## 1
Amino acid sequence: MGSSIQLVFGAVPCHYTTAKSYFTRSSSYFSVKNYVKGKWDKDILCEQLKGPVDFQGCLRVQGRGAISRLYSVGKPNRRLETLSCKCQRTESVSQAIVEVGSGKSVNGMSEPSSLQSLEGPKLLNNEKTVISSDDEIAAASEMSDTLQGFGINSIEDEAWNLLRASIVYYCGNPIGTIAANDPSAANILNYDQIFIRDFIPSGMAFLLKGEYDIVRNFILHTLQLQSWEKTMDCHSPGQGLMPASFKVRTVPLDGDDSATEDVLDPDFGEAAIGRVAPVDSGLWWIILLRAYGKFSGDLSVQERVDVQTGIKMILKLCLADGFDMFPTLLVTDGSCMIDRRMGIHGHPLEIQALFYSALLCAREMLVPEEASADLIRALNNRLVALSFHIREYYWIDMRKLNEIYRYTTEEYSYDAVNKFNIYPDQIPPWLVEWMPTTGGYFIGNLQPAHMDFRFFSLGNLWSIISSLATTDQSHAILDLIEAKWEDIVANMPLKICYPALEGEEWQIITGYDPKNTPWSYHNAGAWPTLLWQLTVACIKMNRPEIAENAIKVAERRIARDKWPEYYDTKGARFIGKQARLFQTWSIAGYLVAKLLISNPKAAKKLINVEDSELVNALSYALSANPKKRPRRKLKQSYII
């Protein structure tokens, strides 16, 4: 290997290899353009290194052939005050030039070997991707061949390099991964941001690999974002709401246009398409926090006062009293992974499964104290009620389907069988033929006079992982997946839901959404990221062969297809018509699945196990036969 020059852009190292070796994508505009047929444009490189040798602060590429200083002094901008970058000083440019594999550090960061990873892009504030030219797109298309030329022959090796290429740095430290690193995308929208839900599989992959710092940084920085003031059209949501995503931006310092600083800019839904509320963000954050403690053994993070406060704020927001009579969370459409109009408003299963899991995780992590007694009591009561409600009313199999088929409607009594006044004619014709004789699942949604009979993969899988489903129900869900393999897995795991909304139903429910056409995107598209949830669920139920078969299906084409976001058509034969390539959570989902299959014991750190008190409470509730509830003793009212 030849020598390498490493420059520090905002405390993030970018590597330039002078010999004929594989380049790494960096945050600069010239990282790929200057590498043509194995040679660097020496004139440009020398031009970029011109200037005095006593640069101080963090060097940042402002444009082609220009390096400016980045100071971390002065007053930060507006609301970005508490999260501005406080980078360390580099005394001279010679400190930023090191040899590959020397192990020297720049600003406290060890310089990795040239093939250890692809350094993540430092995303700048010009709202453009750092990869845009035709040469760069062609280079990305040849990535697989290049990796194989350096002995990186397995899909897993390629995935790890791509995952590390997606890392975003803040103040010199890894803070998360961008949603997608697609060089062919003409419009990046918000795919260059760090999404909380999208980072979960990335975080799990790093935890399984023993790389804990990035997860710790992500947890603590997103916690700081939680307390920010959030306003849309003069309205502020409740405290405790976590952002859907955030971005590392470079902004000029107040009073000094020649210097810049890094800040975190969150989106709580006020800039999102459709202005959807990120209900699931706080739930995923609690789940990841518990996983970090389980894998790293570092319980000091969850015991911090600010972290304990953050957990309580999320719980208070979720457990707040409202008009609803049900223990399930009432949310708007598009409030979870399905973040567009798809008819899931109300009490979608995915939110309920994550809610239940987050409650269990929070109860495990909360420090016992007198001030939290009421909160913990409300949490325990909600766990029992939520578990009973989902198991009793969301579950459907052939027996339950036949029971609904024979329902009597318009029952007014405390002991009604058809509590939600479901009309038998709601049973869709496809379900009568599709339901296997063995197996079952939780329906997608339940409201008065409405049952959404679609099968939603994430909600059902997380019901297994969180023990929201009983042991028998968990096995039945996996039985259904096996029985309906061609519908749910087909040519690429895993359908986000089944079946698709079509015809007039699609027109009415989605509002003619051109992205959610039948068998595409959220409308029954296939999402490779769901592979890791399937693997955890299968390992928990001691049926890993189901996940192994799904992984084999994915490996046939996912790397060749450049790691798409999702797949289209009923059999998942086409790459999604608007799918981003090099989608980070597709990459991370595959890696987590592979790591868990090779080390099944690690899955125990991701699952929730019911404790004896909850089991006893549920047993009592079931034995009380809620279908025949005694009349309440009426109280006499008084006028004062």
## 2
Amino acid sequence: MAKLLSCVLGPRLYKIYRERESERTPPGVPETPASGATPSASSWDSYYQPRALEKHADSILALASVFWSISYYSSPFAFFYLYRKGYLSLSKVVPFSHYAGTLVLLLAGVACLRGIGRWTNPQYRQFITILEATHRDQSSENKRQLANYNFDFRSWPVDFHWEEASSRKESRGGPSRRGVALLRPEPLHRGAADTLLNQVKKLPCQITSYLVAHTLGRRMLYPGSVYLLQKALMPMLLQGQARLVEEYNGRRAKLLACDGTEIDTMFVDRRGTAEPQGQKLVICCEGNAGFYEVGCISTPLEAGYSVLGWNHPGFAGSTGVPFPQNEANAMDVVVQFAIHRLGFQPQDIVVYAWSIGGFTATWAAMSYPDISAVILDASFDDLVPLALKVMPDSWRGLVTRTVRQHLNLNNAEQLCRYQGPVLLIRRTKDEIITTTVPEDIMSNRGNDLLLKLLQHRYPRVMSEEGLRVVRQWLEAASQLEEASIYSRLEVEEEWCLSVLRSYQAEHGPDFPWSVGEDMSAEGRRQLALFLARKHLHNFEATHCTPLPPQNFQMPWHL
């Protein structure tokens, strides 16, 4: 009877993975996750096959879940319509509640029938036995057996807790239950006294900004958190997970962040391979509709690196909602997991981000200054110009206030706090982070990210002459134009390197540098163009085109 109840209340089982390479490796032999692993024909045919009763009951419950999600998003309009028609009176609400109660009882009955169908299936009974054993005792053997199943991630036991990283000191900005530290925007009216009257005047605007951010704004900014989109992408996500687990021996884990958010991660270990880049861990930060199952994780993976992918809060197996504070909390526990559980030193960790993932990548770089390098692909400097681009001009004040107070993705400000190597990849046909049209490459906000970084690190070089020549170089829309500008200015790379190395040897590596202070205008132009070319690479593609592995390169450093 207890097993039947477990089957009724248990999670949905999606897939049973085929035997993986690591399980066939004799003890003492190093694992080689991707050493020529060729998937068999059954690699994509190992989905769990439910019995008819479970299958039909699952279909009914899934349909009910979709209708509930649609009702949730349309509820404000529905309530307004019912109110206008007079359907919210007590005499009409009571019968409706009876209908709703009957429907809930019917769905509960369907769930019980599904449990009976699971109970008659020996595969599901074996799975639920392993899951219960793992919750009681998280031994390595139980975890190994549980990793052979792909099921509703809400029932996966927590593998790493944010408090396990006990060696982190509060002086470094260690997390508390309220969350990690973020850079806060400066007040719009710095000199105004914040009296009670001023607070009352601001209250309507603050309430409006809060409502916009927590309803329309968050879903526009992170469409991947919308349940209906995730439901539509579910088959693709399951296939992506199967590829990572079966072909690359990926290891899934659940991390608990300081705010209680559960983060879904996937780790592929290449340290046992002959390739030297396998000793480096690349932490991948996905875009606003990206998931590690099908996202930018494939680029460093195919390039031979160890990889740690994770899903934003509210995406796929991760819980919570993707606001900046939650995003930073999630990134913090991911980095802590990489250091304290996976055993990578910060000097061996590279953070790679695509698009909106630049926010968490730059936060990690700012908060963990010993990280080896940062690579930002198709990212931007600040969210406000991009938000203003898609909203009416009459909403400018509301949009700016809402972004600054609730959705402040200040990538450039955070990146300037990092002292290590940085590489920016600009898409020359990017249609998302341009503020006009894709053909106008100068409206690409990646340009502003580069300029702000160089102006912070090399303020004397990026004076009027340096700024002008870098802008000319950024106008180049092809490699031929780029090379033409570079050769026309006759940049002497050896001279630029010698100047920078001499300054570093004398003054140390910490930015900002005063190099170029006593330099001629021609010297500053050469140095500015040299630095711009080292920090930004062009990729002739649109925003969502996957980055080829050969374009994934480590940033330049002296």
## 3
Amino acid sequence: MSGDKDELAQHARYGDHEGDNDFESARHSDGGGHDEEEEDDRERDEEAQLLDGEDYEQFELEDASPSAPLHRQRPDERTRARERDGDRRRRTPRSWLTRFLHGPSPPKTNTIRPRFPSVQEYPVRLLDRLLPQAWQKLVLLALSVLLWTAALAIPLAKSKGALTDAAGNDVRHLDCVDTLWRRNNECGLDGLDCRPFANETFSFRCPANCAGVRVLNPHHVGPVDVNYRPLVIGGPVYRGDSFVCGAAIHAGVISDASGGCGTVALRGTYYGFFGSSHHGIDSIGFDSYFPLSFAVGADPALDCGLPDPRKPLLLVSLLFTVTLSLLATSSPLLFYLTFTSVFAHVALLSDPPAVSGPSSTIFPTLVSLFAGRLLPALFCASILYLTIIKHTLSSLPPTANATRTLLWLLPLWLGTLSNDTLSWIPLSRLSAHDLAQQPGARAALAVILLVLVLAVANQTYHFWREGRLLPHLALYLVLLLAIAAAAALPGLELRIHHYVLALLLLPLTATQTRPSLLFQGFLLGLFVNGIARWGFDSLLQTPGALRDDAALNSRVPVVVPPLIYLNPPAEFGGHKGGVDRIQFKWAPPEEDKVEGISVLVNDVERYRGFFKDGGGGGLDQQVFTWTRDRERIRTAEYFRFGFVGAAGAVLDYGEAGTWFANGSWSQGEGYYRG
């Protein structure tokens, strides 16, 4: 009896296939359906009577559950279940939104159907015919990796290795933005911290692609502020704060495509730097004098080694990764080898970190930075692969290898080389200053946001089809809350680097569609470029670190009209060798935190005064006097004034005032005395 009871309980819980079929046939029959339903009900009642109380309650709960199929419920139970569902829907008016966000039922998995599958699979079949054994393929892969490594390492070592000039001195390796003179007052009073000014020569080596490097914050050049252009002033004699490599390209000593070597000769004080256009660089004119100038020349005795190999080796890396993508049938193998090779190409060749110094230190420094950044980058790449990229690549068959190459690998390279491929976009940085000052930046940002919105909408739709939208909405809600909390931290500012932007958007590509392949490859390339070039730069930075050398938007001194003493020339009765004088005073500062004042003359700091040095009268009682020999200096001079803040740091300098060669002052009439 107990065995029959267990058998009946099992029958009641899991159903009987024959009973199901009988019920379905009864539902669709033309007649007798009602009698068969009543007979089924009687059989269930008889079976239920044989069950004990506990099993009967469990049977009732399972059989009457709304989740149970309708054909396993009695007619009265089906009616009650429908009524309960209706009541529940009426009590929860937003349930339609939940059902919508869950996506269609059943979900529709996104898959890529390759076009011309036999053509795309041909390289794999050919490799199987030539090398049928697995160990043969492994040997081929190992040899390919070794050949690619040697093809990169040997030219890199010869182009970035140690060099000496004819005198045995170490050649200086310069970055594209290196100058002999630092901005504002960073060379100290009268430029003493940037000496020597003359009577010195040295040999240098520059990398490729320096012609397009621009200054990204306003740089004072006499009466104007230069921005978003190469900082090359003059030619063939250049002002000391010019980019040395840019000046060498302008002078024709090196080429932008391959870099090169040359010599710098310091010329000291020089008058009249003329602007001109040569070799793709428009130099800036400056009509006054500067204490440090230099000329650039070639050194026939200097063997510069191999020219910068970034462009030829780009073809080598492209060939290696494209061949790997066409032949690989393992997505982890493809991903990790491609990631490592692309990372190495950026960190060592296409966009290496900015390093300067003796040439003997450059190659070890680059390799050290590469190794230090690769390991944490590979850890992040592993997380990305397991959580995101695996959804896109792992189930692609060999019949889609060409599709993968075109839509995933090539966009990855475009993102990796973004310093070249995206250089035409007039948007250097996502900062309020750049958006306001850089021509075309706002329009470019609007177009980028439009493309981003369309891409996000497309990806959201595909996640909805797969029934995976709600988890991703929850993820981005958490990310937004974390970003908002970080932005609210006092004393710190949030900076979304492009590697961070890539990490934020990559989860939207975790589905197998052609747009997902394209977006994922490009975003992964941006991640590689950001880490290989800049490292894991902090998401939270202090205002000073974020600003770098940009303006502080601080108050500037209010200078009263100067007092000018003009000495007539000798031919008009003046004393031979006499000088003209101009004296400045300034209104009392409105801020208590200001400690002093700094004066630039022709962009060189010539005066710095402090409150405590005012003889008890305060800073507003001090006078700055500047003299010039009219017989020797017959050019205009440019003056800028800025407050000195805490710890001697100079704040923003104001607009330039001009003391013309004829003695007149550009800002107001002033007072004249003979």
## 4
Amino acid sequence: MAGKEEELGERNGSARIDIGSTTPADSGHARLHQLGYKQELKRDLSVLSNFAFSFSIISVLTGITTLYNTGLRFGGTVTMTYGWFVAGIFTMSVGLSMAEICSSYPTSGGLYYWSARLSGKQWAPFASWMTGWYCSSRLPSSSFVELFHLSFISVPVLFNIVGQWAVTTSVDFSLAQLLQVIILLSTGGNNGGGYLASKYVVIGFHGGILLVHAIINSLPISWLSFFGQLAAAWNVIGVFVLMILIPTVATERSSARFVFTHFNTQNDAGIHSKLYIFVLGLLMSQYTLTGYDASAHMTEETKSADKNGPKGIISSIGISIIVGWAYLLGITFAVTNIPYLLSSDNDAGGYAIAEVFYLAFKSRYGTGVGGIICLGVVAVAIFFCGMSSVTSNSRMAYAFSRDGAMPLSSFWHRVNRQEVPVNAVWLSAVVSFCMALTSLGSLVAFQAMVSIATVGLYVAYAMPIFFRITLARNSFVAGPFNLGRYGVMVGWVSVLWVATITVLFSLPVAYPVTKDTLNYTPVAVGGLLILTVGSWLLSARHWFKGPITNINT
């Protein structure tokens, strides 16, 4: 085993660290040293805490609530009820493949580090560059030239992390929009003279939410562990309370036949093909089931990370699939009039789930206050989702800067006395806020950028898996968690699924196609791809050599 590991390290251009008798008792700590990194973050998270971060970012209350309109418009109850399992099965396949790699390489760098180690010495620089690696330690000595190179590579090197920031942006912006709807309903609703906050107020909400998230993430990891577990508990309890309460309170409920067989083809998008409609409706499920790579980014702070990191990934996906389907069913049984829920003329201004909650209580008690309180439960879950997302972002930014991949890397890499990468925390919050500012100019531009949160992240998920089943098929050294002889087969299923959804989610979502209805997902993702490849061909291939370590060998 040791001989294979040394051979793998040489093949990938990375040094293997022989720590001999000084091997730490924690297996994750020992493996980190073998990979060539110092233990700089406090390793204090249990497997439950690791799971909690990914589960809170997946947050079925967040994803389903914010994209429920999409599910209703494209296919309705059938798309949501069955599409959830279609997306869930393939997402679990991706998660299993990632968990196997995480067990072998439990570092905060996650995806981009995996790509470098799995692609072999010849391809490591290009592979890690494409996934989002770091710049080589062999940069020209001139400080001006070094700054030029760092500035030039900042966009492509962030091909992976930009998806992470886009997730935080979309989650916290979704919370700001939900607060807008809660205020609207609390002041009388759309038809009762309620107050509809302007886009400037919404962006103010967004900034305030990010500020609180940055403050919380500056606390010691023991506090973050507590908040993470609280978030996981809130999501589970919240789901079961809402899935039982809403259909119970509603005076009108749909039948089981409607929930399991009604396929909605009435949309204002000019799309009539049932298959096309079903595919577009899958976006709700696939968008929700993202972010579980957080367990990998938290491995340097997790005890026995080579075992508990993979457990965090798999359990967060599995439990989210079960809990999410329960939430979908419970809410959908209270749906009786899809066109009305999607209409901008209803009290919630077209926010479907908000209208479902509001009508359920108003129809029985004459007031929708109970529904507004239920929206508050969802709002807290979204808040926790954004909090955990900032945590994951900051650890990835920390790993990038540790490897010298960002301008001012030494600054972003610093940890405080509580061993928290506090500068990376505030960087993540500021970048996420700046990304949301595009909403002031055009919601179309904002939605195009946020689309990277789904397609861009899954492309980043697929790259190390692809390298594991191709270039590293015979050389991959599995960790404590592995898929055995099924690893390659599951890997191919994962890669093909990502390729499929990348194409499907790039298709037009409305006809005729105009500048306002064009799906800008391929433009946003393709633009990043062109920048990444272009900068590699023009500059990086001459000096970027791949992984480095921060332990002397």
